């Protein structure tokens, strides 16, 4: 994993966006527009009218009424896929087959087998594939890992992380459709799992998850709590939800101190810092005010331009999906699932 200084190139990667999801309109496209090495060339929707409307609002040069049309555009070098989870595999593979690099929203797939197929298709086509965990590109995580490696908080004893929000009244939301890969573990639970794997730098041995499956929301998990067991007797405890008060934090507890990140995944005004506590004394560590969506695409483009490995290899998405899938299985079966 490398997140060093970005070497500025004069050219820009031309992006096509498959779909007009809120995450694309409100976060990723604005992030690309602020980028050094990227530009949005086209956007597609299942209907031309919606694509034209969004293209006009966001000053995107081209609009297509189907995803196939966008993929046929020879100027498009990379595609961003913010489609519902059950469509990630299909359109990643189709994009790879026509030589487009792919940035796909998390979770990459519905399970590790799908993720493996997507990775294989991109490797065969010699295109890059990245899962859009934008938080990992923010310098606060480099700072956090430097503190841990310095020994300041001692040995890691445990990690606790939460990611919840309340959107439960939006009954037609794709998050609440089983066949579309709905549920809180897919949508936000994948973040604490990814972050713990990133921090511990190891893969879990077992998971145990309990979930609230809502009859009002097609029986998807609207809230889940889990225990992820790592080697060396380290564990992640987490909860995630889509019918709860907004929370977005992570705490790393060490033998001699702790690190708290109040804005762990989504950066928020007034909470963009780390707190390190030792023996009751706390200090606040400021972190840069940067756009993590912009950093994500800049690192992606530079890796492609320089023919270098991505900062986070696509295989990482396979391992994360393996854990997420096990969490869902555990919640449904009400039992501990071993991963090794």
What does this molecule look like?
A 9-stranded mixed β-sheet has the order 14-13-12-11-7-10-9-8-15. Strands 3-2-1-4-5-6 form a 6-stranded parallel β-sheet, with helices on both faces. The protein has 9 helices and 15 strands. It is of the alpha/beta class.
Q: End-to-end distance, in Å?
A: 24 Å
Strand order in space, largest sheet: 14-13-12-11-7-10-9-8-15
Structural class: alpha/beta
Strand content bin: 25-35%
Number of strands: 15
* Secondary-structure element order, N to C: EHEHEHEHEHEHEHEEEEEEEHHE
Report on the biggest sheet. Answer: 9 strands, mixed
Q: Which features would summarize this protein structure in a list?
A:
340 residues; globular; 15 strands
Fold topology:
Elements (H helix, E strand, L loop, with lengths): L12 E6 L3 H12 L4 E7 L3 H11 L3 E3 L2 H5 L6 E4 L6 H10 L3 E4 L7 H14 L3 E3 L7 H12 L5 E11 L17 H17 L5 E8 L7 E10 L3 E8 L1 E12 L3 E4 L11 E6 L2 E6 L5 H14 L9 H19 L3 E2 L2
Parallel strand pairs: 1-2, 1-4, 2-3, 4-5, 5-6, 7-10
Antiparallel strand pairs: 7-11, 8-9, 8-15, 9-10, 11-12, 12-13, 13-14
Helix pairs in contact: 1-8, 4-5, 5-9, 7-9
